[in-house]
Fold each of these.
Amino acid sequence: MVVAIDGPAGTGKSSTSRAVAAQLGFSYLDTGAQYRAMTWWMLGHGVDVDDPAAVAAAADKPEIVSGTDPDHPTITVDGVDVAGPIRTPEVTAKVSAVSAVPEVRRRISGIQRAIAAGAEHGIVVEGRDIGTTVLPDADLKIFLTASPEARAARRSGELKGVDLKTTHQALIARDTADSSRAASPLAKAGDAVEVDTTELTLQQVVECVVTLVEEKRVAR
Ligand code: DC
């Protein structure tokens, strides 16, 4: 059973995906963390991340490994735990540029498909292009949305000390870049179920997705 959960930043994708996976005994894959890990490696190795040719030339070099336990997801690059460093504002500011490079997407999508194929009981994969491109045959596709205000408020709650206006602007800029790139942009798959989380609690969103998974299981 493969569940794809896509949507822009701040819609509750990670919290929802982890909770759904934990509740169902599934694996969990945070694909955004993989793009962040690639970006972190490039920044640390002096690659000019605004030069797509330089990024493409280095895309095969870092070894990115994701741990898929929803209660304890991990991410390493060349054996180094980068769970903290990939969340810095520097990485966040550059991840859209790196993830727009087709060679990066090809490399990381390959890792994602291998992980999904190897999942024992089922997997929840969260990202931007999972339902459209990486796993188009996913059993269930969810597209999470929320108003820009709700998304910015959630993010600034997570990033203590960063004001709401700055968060709002950075979030909109990232979504615009992620939605307008040529290579597998952020998009809702035609057969995805859209869930607007603006007025919902995390618990309500999790219940909604778990119910949809159960319905699919019965129908299979
Ligand atoms: O989910 P996140 O905010 O940690 O993702 C970071 C960035 O990674 C996001 O701005 C775009 C990119 N990304 C992507 O291009 N494709 C995915 N499947 C997941 C993330």
Amino acid sequence: MAGIVPSRRVRGTPFSAGVQAAGAKAYTVYNHMLLPSYFESYKADYLHLKNYVQVWDVSVERQVSVKGPDAAKLMRIISPRDMNKMAKDQCYYMPICDDNGGMLNDPVAIKLAEDHYWLSIADGDLLQFLLGLAIGSNFEVEISEPDVSPLAIQGPKAEELTARVLGDSVRDIKFFRYKKLQFLDTQFVVARSGWSKQGGFEIYVDGTEYGMPLWEAFFEAGKDLNVRAGCPNLIERIEGGLLSFGSDMTRQNTPVEAGLAKFCNSPDDYLGKATIEKQKRDGPDRIVCPISISGDDDLPDNDTGWKVLFKNNQVGLIASAAWSPDFQTNVAIGMIERDHWDAGTVLNVDTGADIRSAEVQEKFWI
Ligand code: THG
């Protein structure tokens, strides 16, 4: 496939110069912005991520800022998650739904103050939904996309590298908590989070002008740690069961179907609550499952979703699959119908190129 032309609609990021110089080989577009897909290869990037440390340009995780006297009120309307105990230095992974429980996004919410939140969004124009709700309800709240671009430091050496650049206090940050830490003449929100299971931090770089200086600082400080540029890795995130909104689940699915029921515990009257509570009681009709698929490292690309079959009837869909070097099988995330989702169930998958056998797993691999 030919390349992508950046423009105001398909934006570069504060780190794009560094990403390009580091040799990104392929990009995707996410929130109208460039996101690298791999550098050396999915497999080489994966092996490096699991052993060393990588710097990821995840600017595409745009922030929707919700600020003002009615910010908390708006958050309660859109949040299936109980916000009552959210601490002032806390981040929450949070599905966001329409009035029927259909998922619109699955951001990480960051509480900056009682009257100020950021929603670090997955792919989708969530800002417009919040703006519509705020205008429709006459809420006193400002909805905006600030000049904030997350940079993720991920891998087993992430804590050592981040401590070298931002100070030893990063070591005290707990999972999904943040501290505000100094860099040059400014401060950034630094959270222990990130879209991998290898551990690390996300730095919410506030101000494009700080992007490349911070990028350079990490590469300078990490030479002996074998630091490399990286990006969310397809293989590792499937092994870890980290879902990609728009692929693994869409507005056609509720958070219960996405396996996110534990994040739907709000006592407040949020959008989609009736459907979500009913599904929590009765069980959903389909749910996200870990699936292994037979064959070697020879899967075709998957841009439409592969049908999962039982005796020629479709009983599910697989949107994400990849060969796992560590588990020596093809790992996949599938949305599987109720009668076929028990661990150990053997099904077929139509990849478009061939039919393969597949087995529902008890749990994700890491
Ligand atoms: N970080 C930030 N913004 C993001 C993502 C991120 N926006 C887009 C996308 N990723 C949103 N989706 C997810 C999905 C999973 C997680 C975070 C964001 C995640 N889940 C943990 C897990 O499943 O192990 C645990 C979540 C928890 O226990 O609260 O990290 O990555 N800034």
